[in-house]
């Protein structure tokens, strides 16, 4: 099975913050999760570089838009690299191949009669790059998300017959042919569809920083249409190429995005595909927000944390882990330094880090570093290895808790003092049980903690490359091995700060 995994493409009006990073890390972790299980994966992310919002940001920075977007796109790539996020493709909408693809796609919709010339009147938010519907307008014609005044616009525009696809999309969403998850978001889309769809503008007349419409160069392509088509142009033989030269196989198996851009992805995107008889994505997974004191983290609200700040304080793997764990998948999560510190301490320093440390020092002390051979107790080893992606975090937390209770319950330090053979074989059993579970943790945590996982496996002279996923639940890879002790995986914060 091929997995094509996407994130939204991020606006380059400013540098990335940890809200963007969360989505990208979730997608990266899923990509790694599938790769570890031998599946073929294409993980795509990128940057959304056209439109008024970007042009205004470039102007404010006193820079020519082309240079400005190149710089910011690079800042995104650098941030992902620093977080050990490894996409297979990074798409930029100013890539000439993407631009050509968008023109050709729209030309074909125009030729097939899906586009007509009209007039658009409505309230526009530049922050969202969106015409708001009646129910989306805040007090005194403000944007409820950006808390800024909306602009009332009336302009000639080319319109896409979105209304034409209402029943079809309703059917596809209802039947989960296009699965929208969590279910609350599916219901939100269905009720939006029931309100009735209006045709949408696919062009803007006054906007110069965009892709010209091939049949009328007075217009540029509305930035959202340009942006949504990235998922398709990345897969087109003539579309952008990526360093590896490979292409994703359309359609996406899962697309991650946050709730603010649900309608674009659940309605306009499928309609564009249906208009060309193309297959729809299998699943849209809608994430919540990282919030600060209940407010969405965003540059315009001035409450952002940069990914680099987390890396400096906690290290790269820990930063990944905490962004993954900051909110349950699909829900909001409120963040603060206090919460990050607490999460680091509980899950990483005292959790996985201390468990590994306890194990290796006991093994040194009681068995000269050699893992004994024995039957083991099952504290969830096979469930851990087989855990679905969505329960990875819970499963690993549970296993770590169980390992620590198990140590406390069996008191290896007492067993070690005893001369009774049954106590010594019980000690063997405890140590092997720990070794086998820690080995499996090394594998299971690899999507979230790639470096720490490699170090855990290196204890046993193993590496991710030669872990055999298929046999991991049954075989005993650690028995009779001499371990090579490692330094603290997650030093306590006092020593980090
Ligand atoms: N450019 C559009 C998307 C086009 S996709 C065809 C856009 N860009 S964005 O830069 O505003 O970021 C969108 C995505 O970033 C959100 O959908 C979400 O995945 C992520 N996040 C941005 N801020 C976030 C939080 N505060 N919290 C969690 N995710 C956030 O919209």
User: Which consecutive residue ranges, at least 5 long each, have pLDDT under 50?
Assistant: none
Query: What gap, in angstroms, lies between the N and C termini?
Result: 44 Å
What bound compounds does this protein have?
5'-O-[(L-methionyl)-sulphamoyl]adenosine
Q: Quick one: how many beta strands? A: 16
Walk me through the topology.
Blueprint lengths: L1 E10 L6 H19 L3 E9 L3 H9 L4 H18 L6 E4 L3 H16 L3 E11 L4 E3 L18 E10 L5 H9 L4 E3 L1 H12 L5 E2 L1 E2 L7 E2 L2 E6 L1 H6 L1 H4 L20 E5 L3 H14 L7 E5 L2 E3 L2 E2 L10 H8 L1 H10 L7 E2 L2 H31 L13 H6 L5 H19 L1 H6 L3 H24 L5 H10 L33 H4 L1
Parallel strand pairs: 1-2, 1-12, 2-3, 7-13, 12-13, 14-16
Antiparallel strand pairs: 4-5, 4-6, 6-8, 9-11, 10-11, 14-15
The protein binds 5'-O-[(L-methionyl)-sulphamoyl]adenosine.
Question: How would you describe this structure in keywords?
Answer:
497 residues, alpha/beta, six-stranded parallel β-sheet, four-stranded antiparallel β-sheet, 18 helices, 45% helix, 16% strand, elongated, binds 5'-O-[(L-methionyl)-sulphamoyl]adenosine
Question: What this model shows, in words?
Answer:
The protein is built from 18 helices and 16 strands. Helix 12 crosses helix 14 (392-410). The mean pLDDT is 94. The longest helix is centred in the last third of the chain and has 31 residues, at 337-367. It is elongated. A 6-stranded parallel β-sheet has the order 3-2-1-12-13-7, sandwiched between helices. By secondary structure, the protein is of the alpha/beta class. It binds 5'-O-[(L-methionyl)-sulphamoyl]adenosine (MSP). The site of 5'-O-[(L-methionyl)-sulphamoyl]adenosine has 22 residues, from strand 1, helix 1, helix 7 and strand 12.
């Amino acid at each position: 099975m091929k997995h094509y995994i996407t994130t939204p493409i991020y606006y380059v009006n400013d540098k990335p913050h940890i809200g963007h990073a969360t989505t990208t890390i979730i997608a990266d972790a899923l990509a790694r999760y599938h790769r570890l299980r031998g599946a073929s994966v294409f993980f795509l992310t990128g940057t959304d570089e056209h439109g008024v919002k970007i042009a205004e940001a470039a102007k404010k920075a006193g820079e020519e838009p082309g240079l400005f977007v190149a710089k910011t796109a690079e800042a995104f790539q650098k941030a992902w690299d620093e977080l050990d996020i490894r996409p297979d493709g990074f798409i930029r909408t100013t890539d000439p191949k993407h631009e050509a693809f968008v023109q050709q796609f729209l030309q074909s919709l125009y030729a097939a009669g899906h586009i007509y010339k009209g007039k658009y009147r409505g309230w526009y938010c530049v922050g969202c790059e969106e015409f708001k519907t009646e129910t989306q307008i805040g007090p005194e014609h403000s944007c409820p998300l950006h808390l800024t005044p909306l602009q009332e616009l009336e302009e000639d525009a080319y319109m896409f017959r979105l209304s034409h696809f209402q029943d079809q999309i309703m059917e596809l969403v209802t039947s989960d042919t296009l699965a929208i998850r969590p279910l609350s978001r599916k219901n939100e889309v269905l009720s939006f569809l029931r309100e009735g769809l209006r045709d949408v503008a696919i062009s803007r007349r006054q906007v110069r920083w965009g892709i010209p419409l091939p049949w009328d160069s007075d217009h540029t392509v509305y930035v959202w249409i340009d942006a949504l088509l990235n998922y398709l142009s990345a897969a087109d033989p003539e579309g952008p190429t990526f360093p590896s030269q490979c292409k994703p196989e359309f359609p996406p198996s899962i697309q991650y995005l946050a709730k603010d851009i649900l309608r674009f992805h659940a309605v306009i995107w499928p309609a564009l595909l249906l208009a060309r008889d193309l297959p729809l994505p299998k699943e849209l997974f809608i994430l919540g927000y990282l919030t600060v004191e209940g407010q969405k983290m965003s540059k315009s609200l001035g409450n952002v944390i940069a990914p680099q700040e987390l890396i400096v304080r906690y290290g790269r793997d820990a930063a990944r882990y905490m962004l993954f764990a900051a909110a349950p998948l699909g829900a909001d999560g409120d963040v603060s330094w206090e919460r990050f510190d607490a999460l680091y301490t509980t899950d990483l320093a005292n959790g996985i880090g201390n468990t590994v440390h306890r194990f290796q020092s006991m093994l040194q002390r009681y068995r000269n570093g050699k893992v004994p051979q024995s039957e083991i107790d099952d504290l969830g080893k096979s469930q851990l290895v087989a855990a679905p992606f969505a329960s990875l975090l819970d499963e690993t937390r549970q296993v770590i808790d169980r390992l620590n209770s198990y140590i406390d319950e069996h008191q290896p330090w007492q067993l070690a003092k005893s001369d009774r053979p049954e106590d010594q074989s019980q000690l063997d059993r405890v140590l092997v049980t720990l070794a086998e579970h820690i080995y499996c943790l090394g594998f299971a945590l690899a999507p979230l903690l790639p470096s720490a996982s490699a170090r855990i496996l290196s204890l046993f002279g193993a590496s991710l490359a030669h872990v055999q996923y298929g046999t991991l639940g049954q075989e005993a890879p650690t028995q009779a091995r001499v371990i090579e002790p490692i330094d603290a995986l997650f030093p306590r914060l006092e020593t980090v700060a």
